[in-house]
Amino acid sequence: MYRYYELKELESRAPKLFGIPTGTKLDDMFFKIEKEGDRYVKKPLGGIPHLAVINLTGVPDTGKSLLAEQFAITQANAGYKVLYVTVESPANFLYTAMKQRSEAMGVDFSKVESNIVVIDASESDELRENPKALMETMAYAIKEKKVTNTVIDSITGLYEHKEVMARQIVRQFYNFMKRYRQTGVFVSQKRSAQASETAEAAGGLAVAHIVDGTIVLDKKLIESRWDVKLYGLPIGSVLRTIRIDGCRIAPHDPRTWVFEISEIGTIEITVPLDEFIRKSAEEQ
Questions:
Q1: Distance of CA 255 to CAs 21, 161, 273, Å?
Q2: pLDDT above 90 covers what percent of the chain?
Q3: What is the pLDDT of residues 112-143, one digit of tens each?
Q4: Which pTM does this prediction carry?
């Protein structure tokens, strides 16, 4: 017979609502409502919600991995252990990317390299094709190194040849993250046939429906006179946008924001898209 709970029995097990910093403006875009006197006040969480599993999705070259790395470096620099499961890029390439990104962010790389634990599934068929083997390795690393945050880049790479199993595989890793009390980031790839501005990722809606929240990154190529007039950007340039598509753990800013990838490879979220367009119109 399965057990049931009265709601009050869960109080001691309920996670506290606070943010885990990403090193970007996303830290101001999740919030909570607190009562002060006779009024309710909106307060930024300061990061993605603690113990949430967030799906970063977008078409290729939208900055998903950069954002995931920025989150990992921010946490590692703050002294927290991060498990980084690399499924796409071999670990030695990840090292180079992390080192360059750390220098660009002005953080102490010695802290970063000692606080990030890497599992390389990119060159291991066993880890990539067998979720049980990968989760056993992750569990060992989490317990041994006292990890509190986990990034999987990408979750899509774990079912790229068996999308019919996407929902089952994502659910296994989502439950794993909950069991081991991890604040998690899953990077998922979109197929070109999927609408770029939606939360839908490879494997259908499996990822977005299972995880706690989704952040969609997108890019718009300026290729017509209408685009030039609307966005105030020259033909051939790229406008990048980011949007929190939903989060069931904490309220959030639902607007689409403009962001840039700086020359040094960091994500810089600037203004809401509607404000960007309004300023462009005023300057023309």
A1: 20, 34, 8
A2: 75
A3: 999 999 999 998 999 999 999 999 999 999 99
A4: 0.93
Return the ∠ at Cα 85 (arms to 81 and 162), rounded to 5°.
150
H or E, element range at 253:
none
CB 156 within 8 A of CB 202: yes
Q: How far is it, in rounded angstroms, from Cα 229 to Cα 222?
A: 10
**Contact 189/156 with Cβ under 8 angstroms?**
yes
Tell me if 277 sits within 8 A of 284, measured CB to CB: no
Cβ-based burial of 137 (10 A; exposed 0-12, middle 13-18, buried ≥19)? middle
Q: Dihedral of CA 195/156/88/95: which sign?
A: positive
Rounded to whole angstroms, the Cα distance separating 207 from 139 reads: 21
Q: Which residue type sits at 79?
A: G
* Tokens 């023309």, located at residue: 284
Helix or strand run (H / E) with residue 22: none
Query: H or E element: which one contains 121?
Result: none
